[in-house]
Every structure is written in C-alpha cells, then in structure tokens.
Amino acid sequence: MKLSYTGKTKDVYELEDGNYLLKFKDDVTGVDGVFDPGANTVGLTMEGAGRAGLRLTKFFFEILKQKGIPTHYIDADIEQATMTVKPAEVFGKGLEVICRYRAVGSFLRRYGLYAEEGQPLDAFVEVTLKDDGRQDPPISEDALDMLGILSKDEYQVLKSLTQQIGNVVKEELAKKGIELYDIKFEFGRVGEDKQIVLIDEISGGNMRAYKDGEYIEPLELEKMFL
Amino acid sequence: MKLSYTGKTKDVYELEDGNYLLKFKDDVTGVDGVFDPGANTVGLTMEGAGRAGLRLTKFFFEILKQKGIPTHYIDADIEQATMTVKPAEVFGKGLEVICRYRAVGSFLRRYGLYAEEGQPLDAFVEVTLKDDGRQDPPISEDALDMLGILSKDEYQVLKSLTQQIGNVVKEELAKKGIELYDIKFEFGRVGEDKQIVLIDEISGGNMRAYKDGEYIEPLELEKMFL
C-alpha cells in the first residue's frame, strides 16, 4: 500500500483493490499548543486522539449506514487506528459544510449584528472553501456553481445530506444529555454515477458540543460518548 | 424639512409630503486621503463630487424608469445637488448587493483559488451586510431568510433586479467604450405592498469601470460619461 497524502490529522494510503486506508494520527489542530477544531494548523499531539476520533467516526458512520445515508465508509480497525473507505473525488480543492444549531463561532463573528450568542439556528447550512491562505472563505450556492465546483442540483443534495446527518448526530448526542451547537462535514463524489457521500470523519474535532451550558473538549466528548 | 440622517456621502431630509430629499455631499469614501469606493470611511472632500454623482444617478434612474424597472427616484435638482425620493424601508440594517462581470476586489480576495484576476463572471450577484465593524460580511440567501432580513421570494426579486440594472449600466457604459467590472446597489421596500425597488444612487463611487484595460476614477468616469 502506498502513502498518497499526508494530512494534518490523517495519512491516506492507496490500497491495491482501489480503496483507501485512512490512518488517524494523534495530532490535533490548534494554535500554540491549545486545541482548536477550527484551526488550520496542527497545534499539539495528544496520546490516543487518533483512536478516540476513529471510535466516534466508526460509531456514527455505522449508524448512517443503517439509515441508508451514503458515506465512503467500508470498515475500521480501532487497534490500528485505520479506516478503509471507498475512493472519493472532492469538490474543487475541497469544501467544508457546516450545520449550525446555535449561533457561535464564525457565524456570530459575521452575523453578530442580527444574532445573539447561542441563539437557536434551524440546522442552518453553510459552505466554506478549504483554503488556509484565504481563511476558508464562505461561498454561496451561486458562486459554487459559477466556479464549476458544485452544480445547483448537487448543492441541494449536499444541503439535504448535511441536515440529515447533522440531525442524526444531534439526536445521538441528546441521548447522553449533550447538545450539539454546530458540526462540520466533508463530502465527495463516489463511483461512476458520482453519488454525493459523506467522507472524512465525524469526531469531537468536527463539532462543538455542550453539556449543561459547558463546552466539552473533543477528547472528553469521545470519553463521555463511548 | 427635517434632517433625518447624516450619511458618509449624503444627508437625508424628510419632506412634508412624506417623501425624502437626498443631499449629495462632496465627501467621498476613502482611506488616508485616497479615494476608495469600497471604503467605510470618508477619506476626502472633492469639489463637485456630489453634483457629478447626482448627474450620473439621475441619468441612470431615468433610464430605469423608461424601462419600467422600479426605483425610489422622483426627481433631481442638479444645482442644489438634491434628489427627491419615495420613502423606502431598508432590509434589516442595510444590505449591499453586488453584480460582478469580472473577478476583481473582494471576489478575488475570497475566491482566488478558483478564479484569475479579471476573469469574466456572468452578472454574478452577491449580498453583503452593511456592518462596518464586521467588514461588511457576505451573506447567503438561506442566512438572509433565517435571520428575518429578506425572504426567499424577495431574494429572487432582488437578484433579478440586480442583474437587470447591472446589465443596463453595463450597456450604457459600453456605448462609450467603457467596460463595467462590478457595481454595487442598495434596495428597499416601498409602499404598502412592500415592492422591492432600487434606492440610493448609481454613480462612479458604486462601480469599477475600465477603459482600454485602465481603471477609471469615479470623477473621471462622470466627466467621460456625461
């Protein structure tokens, strides 16, 4: 198997059968040694972070499978901290899709004139470009279409899947008394029919979760959850 | 008549018949004494800037009237540098609507990973919030609807009017060998039926125009044009 990509928190290997193996690393994003899921740099290494992220990802991807929501997931090996996935083509040079249930983070920084901190948002979906040098700018449906990144029909599929998956995660967290504030996903096209599916991971590092009004750190969330 | 608002480049008076009078000032937006139509501060005062802006505004608003495109315009007095308009309610605390024909400015700063400088854009419409403290953030159709600023139906009207008006300006400039790169508009709701109409002005300060590949300063544009 061949290393095909070294990411901030994962390495990607190409398998001989055409599938891919994601190796979850213990590196987490952050700034100056402080964990920050929204950061674009690796901030620190936390023992066990890779496996904890994979455990949660496996849990959610298997629930999505049961519900018939398409993902790139095939299987996972927790001991090895690896996940086998179908090959997927990303949109353009990569998009992040955010589903928001409460106004915090960049939403509040942009729309604070119209929204109060923590105000409920109804599974609001927004898309940002993965572009570290330009601070991951938000992009509209029209711009995605015009720039050839995502067609209008694909946007509707992406938005609908984002809300469906966000709601699944929200419900699962609610069973443990945890409230989901927001979550970010990545999607890609799989197979000859270019089906849009969830890719990458669903772990503590992708979401903001709160219990009794207190923010829960990703590793803490993974411990509480599983 | 009563001064009801002092803006950066215009003062607004309420008339006794319920209409409003806009007084175009010679102040133009910019930074450190350099003119910049995108700036949020008054940078300098230029003799005759108010009248020049009004002359161009009158020219375009009268063409729009002939074409049946709704605006708040009633009439203008060039000598006094005043324009009489119908009362309009802005969306939320104010929006700017941009129509782009070439990739320059903030579009390029955000989407430079996918667009080259000067690349043609097909009357691409985007909306930003008027919020100096938050650098006039871009906002999507979904967010405008969710935050109660503009309904989805209104968004479609706004987008269509923006493209119609942008195309009118583009054609008029083309008659003088001038190419429109982008232009920003403001809209409001007028009358009991809350009709969406163009408000504010259409002047050099609202657009980027080029002749033979050279950027034309607003006052220069107004001289070349009229």
From TrEMBL, chains A, B:
<feature type="domain" description="SAICAR synthetase/ADE2 N-terminal">
    <location>
        <begin position="4"/>
        <end position="215"/>
    </location>
</feature>
<dbReference type="Pfam" id="PF01259">
    <property type="entry name" value="SAICAR_synt"/>
</dbReference>
<keyword id="KW-0436">Ligase</keyword>
<comment type="pathway">
    <text>Purine metabolism; IMP biosynthesis via de novo pathway; 5-amino-1-(5-phospho-D-ribosyl)imidazole-4-carboxamide from 5-amino-1-(5-phospho-D-ribosyl)imidazole-4-carboxylate: step 1/2.</text>
</comment>
<protein>
    <recommendedName>
        <fullName>Phosphoribosylaminoimidazole-succinocarboxamide synthase</fullName>
        <ecNumber>6.3.2.6</ecNumber>
    </recommendedName>
</protein>
<comment type="similarity">
    <text>Belongs to the SAICAR synthetase family.</text>
</comment>
<keyword id="KW-0067">ATP-binding</keyword>
<keyword id="KW-0658">Purine biosynthesis</keyword>
<dbReference type="InterPro" id="IPR050089">
    <property type="entry name" value="SAICAR_synthetase"/>
</dbReference>
<dbReference type="InterPro" id="IPR028923">
    <property type="entry name" value="SAICAR_synt/ADE2_N"/>
</dbReference>
<keyword id="KW-0547">Nucleotide-binding</keyword>
